[in-house]
């Protein structure tokens, strides 16, 4: 089976984190969009670092409307 490229928006949310884990488990190239202004939410930072360790590629988002 051919592996897909998957972009997950909201990867630290209730459903998003499950999608990231499933995508990585199936060997897909997985990108996780992270907010630029995430701040100091330690739980989310640790989750993103865990995803990165598992092979996810983190992409920093920008808000062009500000």
Describe the protein's topology.
Blueprint (H helix, E strand, L loop, with lengths): L4 E5 L6 H10 L3 E6 L7 H12 L3 E4 L6
Parallel strand pairs: 1-2, 2-3
Task: Provide key terms for this protein.
NAD(P)-bd_dom_sf, alpha/beta, three-stranded parallel beta sheet, 23% strand, globular, NmrA-type/Isoflavone_red_sf, NmrA-like, 66 residues, Bifunctional pinoresinol-lariciresinol reductase
Tell me briefly what this model is.
This protein is α/β, with parallel strands linked by helices and 66 residues long. Helix content is 33%, strand content 23%.
Rounded to an integer in angstroms, the radius of gyration calculated over CA atoms is: 12 Å
Strand content: 15-25%
Structural class of the helix and strand makeup?
Answer: alpha/beta
What's the average pLDDT? Answer: 90
With helices defined by DSSP (H or I, 4 residues minimum), what is the helix count? 2
Shape: globular
Main sheet: strand order = 1-2-3
The low-pLDDT segments are: none
The secondary-structure element order is EHEHE
Span of the ends, CA to CA:
42 Å
Q: Summarize the main sheet.
A: 3 strands, parallel
> In which range does the helix fraction lie?
25-40%
The total of beta strands comes to 3
């Amino acid at each position: 089976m051919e592996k897909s490229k998957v972009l997950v928006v909201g990867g630290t949310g209730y459903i998003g984190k499950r999608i990231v884990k499933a995508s990585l488990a199936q060997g897909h190239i997985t990108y996780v969009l992270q907010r630029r202004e995430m701040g100091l939410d330690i739980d989310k930072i640790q989750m993103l670092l865990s995803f990165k360790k598992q092979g996810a590629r983190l992409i920093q988002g920008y808000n062009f409307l500000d």
